Amino acid sequence: MSGQTISDRLLAARHSIAGQGLAKAVCKATTEEVIGPKKKHLDYLLHCTNEPNVSIPQLANLLIERSQNSNWVVVFKSLVTTHHLMCYGNERFTQYLASSNCSFQLNNFLDKGNVAGNNIFICLCYDMSPYIRRYAKYLNEKALAYRTVAFDFCKVKRGKEDGTLRTMPADKLLKTLPALQGQIDALLEFDCSANDLTNGVVNTAFLLLFRDLIRLFACYNDGIINLLEKYFEMNKKQCKDALDFYKKFLVRMDRVAEFLKVAENVGIDKGDIPDLTRAPSSLLEALEAHLATLEGKKPTTSSSSNISLAQHNGAMAANAEQIDESLKRQALAEEEAAMNQYKKSTNPFLSSPTSTTAPPPILDLFGSDVDGGSSHTTQSAYDSSHKASDDLLQLAANPFATPTGAAPVIPAMPAQSQAGSWATGPSQNGFGGHFATDNSFVNAFGASANGSTNGECLVFRHFLFVSFFLFMFLFLPSFVCLRFYFQKIF
Residue ranges of region Disordered (predicted)? Predict the structure, then answer.
C-alpha cells in the first residue's frame, strides 16, 4: 500500500470544506500510509502548540480520536504524533494530557486485518498490535509521571552542579524515584527486536523511545548517585527504601543495556549510545551491611571472602586512619626541617658565624692611614676583645666603611688650565693623598696669630650662649609684664 488512500483524501477534503485546519493537519499526519508522519505535518502541529489562539484541548482530543481508529497504521501514527508533540512541543500540551481524564484506551487493541487476500498485511497487523498497546501504555505513564512530579523527566536539567535529581533532598527524592521507575519500566516493556523493526511507523516510534530512554536513564543515574551520597545519613526506613531502589536500578541497567544493543543493531550511531558501567558488588554489600547495623543484626559474610563485611570495613577504616597519621607526621617533619633551614639561613639572631677564617679587612675612611694598616690593627684588637654575638648589627663598626676592604674609587679631578689653580697638583697645596692633613689645611687657609684655630671659635660660642640666656631671663619677663599691664589699661 503506497500513497494516501481514498478515505484519507475524502477526510481531508471534508475538513477543508468545514474550515477545520487543525483537524486537517491531524488527518494529514495520521494517514493510512505505512510510513512515519511527514516532517512538514509535525512541524505545523508543533507550531500550533506554541500559538496562543490554538486550542490545546482540541488538538489533544483530535489525536485521541484518531487513536480509536480500527486501522493499526492510523492508531500507531497518532501515538507517534502525540509522543512527538510531548517531546518537542509546548509544555501546555503535556500539561493537558496529564490533567485531563482522557487517555489512550488501547489495552485490548487488535487489528485483525482488513485487507482481504493479502496475507503479508494480515500478519503485519497482528505483529504491530502488541507494540501499539505497549506504546500507548508508555504515553499514559509519561503523562501520569508529569501529573505526579509536575515536571517532565526528559526535559529537566541533568548533571552534578545543577541537576534536578542530583540536588534534590532525600525525602523528596524517595517520593520522586517511583514515578521515574514506572516510566522507565513502561518504556522497556516495548521490548522489540531488530527483526521487528520492519516499517517506517515502528521505526519512528523506536527512535523516539530511544531518545527518551537516554534522557530518562541519565536522570535515573543522577537520582541514584544522590541517594547513595546521602545513604549513610538516612534513618532505617529511608535506608531500606534506598537499598531497594538501588537493587532495582541494577536490574533495570541490564534491561537498558539490551535495549541499547537493539538500537546499535538497527544502525543508530555508536556515538549516541552511552557506555554503561556497573558498580562493583562491594558497594551493594556495604549498603546491606549498613542497613543490618541499623536493624541491630549481624552483617552477613561475603561469599567471595572469608572475613565479614564489618571486619572489612573496619580494616579499611583503620588503614585510612594509619595512612592519614603517617602522612600527617611526614608533612610535619618536612615542614619542621624546612623551617629550621630557613631560620639558619635568614635570621641572624639564631646562629653565629662558625667560620674560623678572619673576616675581610674593613677600610676606615676616617683613619689616618689610607692603606688601611692601622684600621686592620684596630679591627683585630676589637675582634679579640668582643664576641661575634655581642655586636650582631655591627653598631660599633664604622658605618661609612666599605665591607669589601677595598679602597673606595674616587674619580680623578679634571685638569685645570688656569695658572695658580689649587687643584693642579699635590705639590702646590700640600695634598699628599686623598685626604688633607692639618698642615695642608693651614697652608691653604692660613693660621691664626697665636697658632690656634679652635680657640677663637670656642670664645665666640661662649659669648653667644651667655647672651642668649641673659635675654631669656632678664628682658623676656619684663616684656611679658609690660604686655599684661597695657592690656589692663586699654
Answer: 345-383
In single-letter form, the type of residue at position 250 comes to L
- Please give the single-letter amino acid code of residue 48: C
Torsion of CA 305, 308, 313, 319, to 10 degrees: -70
Structure-block grid coordinates of residue 47: 507550531
CB 22 within 8 A of CB 62: yes
Domain covering 6-156+166-290, topology: 1.25.40
Nearest CA-CA partner of 227 in 241, 248, 213 = 241
82 neighbors 74 (Cβ within 8 angstroms): no
Written as tens digits, the pLDDT of the chain (490 aa) is 457 788 888 888 888 888 888 999 999 999 999 999 999 999 999 999 999 999 999 999 999 999 999 899 999 999 999 999 999 999 999 999 999 877 888 988 888 765 444 555 556 778 899 999 999 999 999 999 999 999 999 999 988 888 899 999 999 999 999 999 999 999 999 989 988 898 999 999 999 999 999 999 999 999 999 999 999 999 999 999 999 999 999 999 999 999 999 999 888 888 888 888 777 778 888 998 999 888 887 665 444 333 333 333 343 333 334 334 444 555 566 667 766 765 665 555 444 444 444 544 544 444 444 444 444 445 544 454 554 444 544 555 554 454 444 555 555 555 444 444 444 444 444 444 445 555 665 565 555 444 454 556 666 777 777 777 777 777 777 777 777 777 767 6
Query: Distance of alpha carbon 274 from its chain centroid, rounded?
Result: 24
Position 141: which residue type?
Answer: E
Q: What angle do CA 216, 219, 222 make, to 5 degrees?
A: 150
Sorted by where each begins, the domain ranges of the chain are 6-156+166-290
Tell me the pTM.
0.60
32, 73 in Cβ contact below 8 A? yes
The CA-to-CA distance between both ends of the chain, in Å, stands at 133
**Which own/partner pairs from 420-428 qualify as long-range (CB within 8 Å, at least 24 positions apart)?**
none
CA neighbor of 89 nearest in space, from 49, 128, 136: 49
Contact 35, 201 (CB under 8 A): yes
The three grid cell numbers given for residue 200, joined into one nine-digit string: 517506517
Q: What is the DSSP string of 172-215?
A: HHHHHHHHHHHHHHHHHTT---GGG--SHHHHHHHHHHHHHHHH
Phi, psi of 363 (to 5 degrees): -80, 125
